[in-house]
Amino acid sequence: MYADRAENAQLWDVEGRRFIDFAGGIAVLNTGHLHPKVTAAVQAQLARFSHTAFQVAAYEPYIELCERLNAAAPFSADAKTILLTTGAEATENAVKIARAATGRSGVIAFSGGFHGRTLLALAMTGKVAPYKRRFGPMPGEIFHLPFPTQIGDATVRRSLDALAGLFAADVEVERNAAIIIEPVQGEGGFHVAPTELLQALRRICDEHGILLISDEVQSGFARTGRMFGIEHSHVEPDLVCVAKSLAGGFPLAGVIGRAEIMDALDPGGLGGTYGGSPVSCAAALAVLDVIEEEGLNARAEIIGAALRKRIEGYRDAGLPVANLRGLGAMIGFDVLGTDGVPDGTAAKAVCAAALEEGLIVLSCGAKGIRILVPLTASDAIIGEGLDIIERSLTAVAGFGL
Predict the structure, then answer these.
(1) What is the pLDDT of residues 177-199, one digit of tens each?
(2) With CB atoms 3.0 to 4.6 Å apart as the test, which of 55, 208, 280, 355 could cross-link to 250 if both were Cys?
(3) 363 and 344 in contact (C-beta within 8 Å)?
(4) What is the pLDDT at residue 54?
(5) What's the average model confidence in pLDDT over 335-361?
(6) pLDDT at 19 over 60
(7) Cis omega (within 30 of 0) on the bond before 137?
(8) How many C-beta atoms lie closer than 10 Å to residue 339's C-beta?
């Protein structure tokens, strides 16, 4: 389908068909398509100027946005922010900052994690197909641990044992600059990082001078019921990567870090021609206003509770769903095959059936479905979308997929 126009949680294609949007441009539209406040802010900025390159001629929206992100940082220390353009830029710059601040090179990530598609970000991404296949070799000194999905033997203990094994067999602990983790894995399946794991990582990082990076590209900006997903654990990271819903559909990303860490960089060491676009900054300031004024953190909790109740109802009615998970309105679940185990083909079939009925919803991980409905969506629209998922699950189960 080819988009023609959109409003809040609805989209119409060039043939006039209406769709409910449970994808949000892959977690970009927490405030919906064309929120009036965002649109007005963008139009006002466009009437002034569209681009200067911040390094050439600075502008107030960049500074104001950084100040607001610094104030929202999920750690108690003073913060500083650099603005960029994409999520991959955010994760790569976080690694550059960590390496400069520590004088070390090693980076530890997790299986199933997604940190972007540029080469260093791709090396950190914990999935070969389709992301890494045929694009090697990857940059060196990137190591992966199993992520504790709490399904089967994927436990916190297994992850921490693997970390100890990594330090013993592959890289001395003193050579590691950072550990990067998504508090809720995005593409990897909406698995929540257990608080026990985050606490252990914080303790290990503190003991050995390693920096903890929270990749909030998909989980940030009220999606989980908090401004940042890691806030649920009360664990404080050193660096935070942001993008996606930060600017309500306009390209913008950033790294928020403890000021003492950010100050380790040489002037001019970070930057980018389009980084912190004035138009995107204007949009982001409006997004932050909307999150506060419309109470979207609380709204995410309400939406999440409704999603959980309906999906649990699917399961109780005998539909092929399992492993319901997530935080706030960042909800995922697996689709079962005829053998009663999660099945990726069945999950994709549900998404395809839903699209035919007018719902855009995405798969995630190897065998799951993720829901990223705008937090500004009405209860009626959300209910209509959930009805379509129910019918799609019924149809797929009927075909024995």
Answers:
(1) 999 999 999 999 999 999 999 99
(2) 280
(3) yes
(4) 97
(5) 95
(6) yes
(7) yes
(8) 7
Statement: residue 401 has pLDDT above 60: no
Spatial separation of the C-alpha atoms in residues 350 and 389, rounded to whole Å: 7
The fraction of the chain above a pLDDT of 90, given in percent, is 95
What is the rounded average pLDDT for all residues in the chain?
A: 96
The Cα–Cα gap between 372 and 29 comes to 8
Q: How confident is the model at residue 152 (pLDDT cuts 50, 70, 90)?
A: confident
Residue 250 has phi, psi (to 5 degrees) of -105, 145
Distance of CA 331 to the CA centre of its chain: 12
The token pair that represents 147 in the structure block: 């992520």
Residue 178's nearest CA partner among 259, 91, 114 is: 91
**Residue 398 confidence class, pLDDT cut points 50, 70, 90:** confident
Tell the burial category of 263 from Cβ atoms under 10 Å away from its Cβ (0-12, 13-18, 19+): exposed
Cβ-Cβ contacts under 8 Å for 317 (sequence gap 6 or more): none
What is the per-residue pLDDT for 153? 85
The two three-digit tokens of residue 87, written as one number: 């999520």
Q: Is 90's pLDDT higher than 70? A: yes
At 213, which amino acid appears?
I
| Of 152, 141, 146, nearest in space to 178 by CA | 141
How many Å from the N-terminal Cα to the C-terminal Cα in the chain? 24
Print the SS3 string covering 204-215. HHHHHCCEEEEE
CA distance 325 to 332: 5
Helix and strand tally (H, E) in the chain? 12, 15
Residue 36: count of CB within 10 angstroms of its CB: 12
Residues in contact with 122: Cβ distance below 8 Å, sequence separation at least 6, in sequence order: 115, 116, 131, 132, 135, 138
Whose tokens are 């100040």? That residue is: 67
Q: What pLDDT, on a 0 to 100 scale, did the predictor assign at position 138?
A: 93
pLDDT at 400: 59
Q: Is the peptide bond before 342 cis (omega within 30 degrees of 0)?
A: no
Q: Compute the chain's Rg from CA coordinates.
A: 21
Distance, CA of 118 to CA of 276 (rounded, Å): 19
Q: What CA–CA distance (Å, rounded) separates 278 from 284?
A: 10
CA atoms within 13 A on the CB side of 314: 26
The confidence score (pLDDT) of residue 365 equals: 84
Q: Using CA atoms, how far apart are residues 187 and 161, in angstroms rounded to an integer?
A: 25
